[in-house]
TrEMBL record:
GO CC annotations, alphabetized: membrane
PROSITE patterns the UniProt entry points to: PAN, PROTEIN_KINASE_ATP, PROTEIN_KINASE_DOM, PROTEIN_KINASE_ST
InterPro entries associated with the record: G-type_lectin_kinases/EP1-like (IPR051343), Kinase-like_dom_sf (IPR011009), Pan_app (IPR003609), Prot_kinase_dom (IPR000719), Protein_kinase_ATP_BS (IPR017441), Ser/Thr_kinase_AS (IPR008271)
Subcellular location: Membrane
Coiled coil start-end: none
CDD domains recorded: STKc_IRAK
Entry protein name: non-specific serine/threonine protein kinase
Keyword annotations of the record: ATP-binding, Disulfide bond, Glycoprotein, Kinase, Lectin, Membrane, Nucleotide-binding, Phosphoprotein, Receptor, Serine/threonine-protein kinase, Signal, Transferase, Transmembrane, Transmembrane helix
Apple domain span: 185-269
Catalytic activity: L-threonyl-[protein] + ATP = O-phospho-L-threonyl-[protein] + ADP + H(+); L-seryl-[protein] + ATP = O-phospho-L-seryl-[protein] + ADP + H(+)
Length: 662
């Protein structure tokens, strides 16, 4: 791809730029770059291909179907359909010397410029910069090689010797590693996984469903001979059962990682074939380990008991210290604070917490009565916040008031007790009305559309009308409560995040409910647009009358958003309308338009999703939906497979049994 003065060669969508095998051998390499509908992607050929770099454009607002990539004036440029013009009609910036970009045999895409004095073409700019730097290129250390600061090593057994791999040629040549015993599908009983901690892999396109623990991940690989390795990642803030398992069918270069430089823990499990000597060695190690365990069991038990006693005494003293500190806390520093109740007062108003309305991840909710007003008292359990942080959160929630937000009446912060008092919502949470768990009559279209508008207004207030933007971060039917007239209100701000208006993004650990998480959570850099994505999921649940993830259905239908994409592609959106309600079917055209609004909210790129004020304008008929939204939503699967498949490794959220605010 070259630029000489105003001469321009364009790489069109679907075309490939293939690297040569070496600097002197120009036969085709396994590395290539190609243009998809939103930008430039680089792959290493395998079955399936593995993506090691992508450069996408976030500027397209009109749903272009064709992308052209060119290089001009020292920059790689992406032109989408609406902005692309005939190159001959454009006044291109001129350059003082000839330039071109080349995809090298090592996978690097570099810009070269003619040096007239030296009469050479030196590389003057690196165009592609993968997440792992130089180690992010798939052939930097050859197959099975582990890259650590451009130094290559073979996988080690027990962290000290390599009983399964040997380097190809001279280790200094970084040609990769080869298994001492090739993998045999006829001897799967002798397959074993070699554990590499603090190691990651560049390609994250192929998650393994329902493999959320390291053991699940390893078993999935051992059961399928085509699997050569799996990469298990656990992002900060997740539990040991919420990890992501990624499938590898051909192992190229791996990357050694530093935990402080990424937002996840990572281990790679490489499949190896046990030979006769390996099996004997494994048996000997097992025998030695058994003897060692027997010899150290009794002393270890004694040590554990002593440690347990010490820890218990420490926690008791620590709790007493913080209880005393809580008693001395100065409440006057918070200017705007809702009513404060004593723990005894709330115990009395709930009749000893006798009538439980429901429970969620942070505690249980009880019905109570303050004077003549019915209230819902949420008792937080195992609260990890300190009193100062808890009260700051209460002040924030207590200072906002909107007809579509559940009102916080008061709170209790007494020693270790943390309670919140909300207005009572007699019809409970939305999920009980759209998932048909209580044999209730189906909601009509008018009620559903009004609930959607109510949710949008509540989120718009949080995002755009408060002094600081508030991202809710846990929008789902269980957190939408209904009053006696089915007016909807957003509830449960336990995971919310304040965002200064001069911040474009904030970094935070992953939080929320699987199945409702926007793709950008994988980067931990989020905006209020994550709520827009979750809103789109809730809209589809309201329209279809089913859960977002329902494992009781066939695999092809279990994920609602993936099913929506397929139905949109086949022009069969009517299949998703709730069949329980004849009224829904009679408003067919309005329901289809609402689905298209949901698709807009569900775009993988958060920048392309509408703001909640725009959503309201669409719902009120002031603004129309962009005509190309459907195509962008359908095409997302081929452009951003990781983000599109985030629900593939999400687990089924626990159904709410809540009949009052949480």
């Amino acid at each position: 791809m070259q630029l000489y003065g105003s001469h321009l060669i364009i790489l069109l969508e679907g075309m490939k730029l293939t690297a040569s095998t070496s600097a002197t051998n120009w036969t085709e390499n396994q590395l290539y770059a190609t243009v998809l509908s939103d930008g430039l992607y680089a792959y290493v050929a395998s079955a399936p291909p593995q993506n090691y770099y992508m450069l996408t454009s976030n500027e397209d607002k009109t749903g272009n179907e064709t992308t052209r990539v060119t290089f001009m004036n020292s920059s790689l440029c992406i032109f989408l359909n609406s902005t692309f013009k005939d190159p001959n009609s454009i006044s291109w910036p001129t350059t003082t010397s000839a330039q071109f970009i080349r995809l090298g045999y090592d996978g690097h895409l570099r810009m070269h410029e003619w040096d007239m004095a030296e009469e050479t073409w030196p590389a003057v700019e690196e165009v592609m910069k993968p997440n792992f730097g130089d180690c992010g290129f798939p052939t930097v250390c050859g197959e099975y090689g582990i890259c650590t600061g451009r130094k290559c090593t073979c996988p080690l057994q027990d962290n000290y010797s390599s009983g399964y791999f040997k380097p190809i040629g001279d280790p200094k040549d970084n040609l990769g590693c080869t298994p001492l015993t090739p993998i045999s599908c006829q001897e799967m009983q002798h397959h074993q996984l070699l554990t590499l901690d603090e190691v990651s892999y560049f390609d994250v396109n192929y998650p393994v469903e329902n493999a959320t623990t390291p053991d699940d991940c390893k078993q999935a690989c051992l059961k399928n001979c085509s699997c050569r390795a799996v990469n298990f990642r656990q992002y900060y803030g997740q539990t040991g059962t919420d990890g992501h398992c990624l499938w590898v069918t051909k192992v190229f270069s791996l990357q050694s990682i530093k935990l402080e430089s990424v937002n996840y823990k990572s281990s790679v499990f490489i499949k190896v074939q046990l030979g006769p000597s390996n099996s004997a060695a494994a048996s000997a190690r097992s025998t030695n380990n058994s003897n060692l365990i027997l010899g150290t069991a009794i002393p270890a038990i004694v040590i554990v008991v002593l440690l347990a006693i010490v820890v218990t005494l420490y926690l008791q003293r620590r709790r007493a210290y913080y209880d005393k500190k809580d008693e001395d806390f100065n409440f006057d520093q918070f200017a705007r604070m809702p009513a404060r109740f004593s723990f005894q007062k709330l115990r009395e108003c709930t009749q000893g917490f006798s009538k439980k309305l429901g429970e969620g991840g942070f505690g249980s909710v009880y019905e109570g009565k303050l004077g003549e007003e019915r209230v819902a008292v949420k008792r937080l359990e195992s609260a990890r916040q300190g009193k100062k942080e808890f009260l700051a959160e209460v002040e924030t929630i207590g200072s906002i008031e909107h007809i579509n937000l559940v009102r916080l009446i008061g709170f209790c912060a007494e020693k270790s007790q943390r309670l919140l008092v909300y207005e009572y919502m007699p019809r409970g949470s939305l999920d009980r009305w759209i998932h048909y768990r209580h044999n209730n009559a189906p909601l009509n279209w008018g009620t559903r559309s009004r609930i959607i508008l109510d949710i949008a207004k509540g989120l718009c207030y949080l995002h755009e009308e408060c002094r600081r933007k508030i991202a809710h971060l846990d929008i789902k039917p269980q957190n939408i409560l209904l009053d006696e007239n089915f007016n909807a209100k957003v509830a449960d701000f336990g995971l919310s995040k304040l965002i200064d208006r001069d911040q474009s993004k904030v970094v935070t650990v992953m939080r929320g409910t699987p199945g409702y998480l926007a793709p950008e959570w994988l980067t931990s850099q989020i905006t209020e647009k994550v709520d827009v994505y979750s809103f789109g999921v809730v809209v589809m649940e309201l329209i279809s009358g089913r859960k977002n993830i329902d494992n009781s259905l066939p695999e092809a239908s279990s994920n609602l958003i993936n099913l929506l994409r397929g139905k949109a592609r086949d022009n069969q959106l009517s299949d998703l309308i709730d069949k329980h309600s004849e009224d829904m079917l009679s408003h067919h055209e309005q329901v289809i338009q609402m689905m298209k609004l949901a698709m807009w909210c569900l775009l993988n790129d958060g920048c392309q999703r509408p703001s909640m004020s725009t959503v309201i304008k669409v719902l009120e008929g002031v603004t129309s939906i962009e005509t190309a939204i459907l195509h962008r939503f359908i095409d997302a699967n081929s452009v951003m497979p990781v983000q599109d498949n985030i629900s593939a490794y999400s687990v089924q959220p626990q159904a709410s049994t809540l009949s009052g605010p949480r």
